[in-house]
Structures are given as C-alpha cells and as structure tokens.
Amino acid sequence: MKISKSHGTSELKELAVTRVRAGHSARAVAMELRLIEQTLRNRGKVAAAGTLSTSSRSPKPAESALYAIRT
Q1: What number of CA atoms fall less than 13 Å from residue 4's CA on the CB side?
Q2: 47 close to 17: Cβ distance less than 8 angstroms
Q3: Nearest-angstrom CA–CA distance, 33 and 49
Q4: Which of 1, 6, 29, 30 could be stapled to 37 by a disulfide with Cβ–Cβ 3.0 to 4.6 Å?
Q5: How far is residue 8's CA from residue 30's CA, in Å, rounded to a whole number?
Q6: How far apart are CA 31 and CA 44, in angstroms?
Q7: Quick count: other Cβ atoms within 10 Å of Cβ 40?
Q8: Helix (H) or strand (E) holding 27
Q9: Would you say the C-alpha torsion 30, 35, 37, 38 has a positive or negative sign?
C-alpha cells in the first residue's frame, strides 16, 4: 500500500486501528504505515473503550502565544 504525505493524520490512524481490528497484526500494520507499534496498540485499546477522539485538542492560550512569538 502506497502512503501519501498524509503521514500521521487522523484518517491514517483510524485506518490503522481498523486494520488491526480486522485481524492484521499491529506490528505489520505499524511497519507498513510507518507508525510506532506501541502507539498503534494504545490507540486500539482506547478505540475499544470508546474514548478515541478523532479531533485534535485545541491549543492552550500559552501555547498559542509561544507559537506566535516563534514565527
């Protein structure tokens, strides 16, 4: 499977969790999609518990201020 530059997106992570749930080994999926195996296992556990959030968190005001200063 060819992976585009969308490496690390939520869609890619959801795809990885779906493939592990379908019966593929976490190691094989992580290697193919260039993800960290333990992170994939953790995401699978969180998804099974039903607490997986597909949206990223909002930055804290202090983080936003630091980002503005750095750029």
Answers
A1: 4
A2: yes
A3: 23
A4: 30
A5: 12
A6: 16
A7: 20
A8: helix 26-33
A9: negative
CB contact at 8 A, 33 and 12: yes
* CB neighbourhood size of 52 (10 A): 15
Helix (H, G, I), strand (E, B) or coil at 61: helix
Q: Tens of pLDDT along 32-56?
A: 998 899 989 998 888 888 776 655 5
Q: Evaluate whether 30 touches 37 at the Cβ level (below 8 Å).
A: yes
pTM above 0.70, yes or no: no
Q: What is the DSSP string of 39-58?
A: HHHHHHHHHHHT---SSPPP
Amino acid in position 29? V
Q: List Cβ neighbours of 43 (8 Å cut-off, separation of 6 or more).
A: 13, 16, 17, 52
Tokens 């699978």 locate to 44
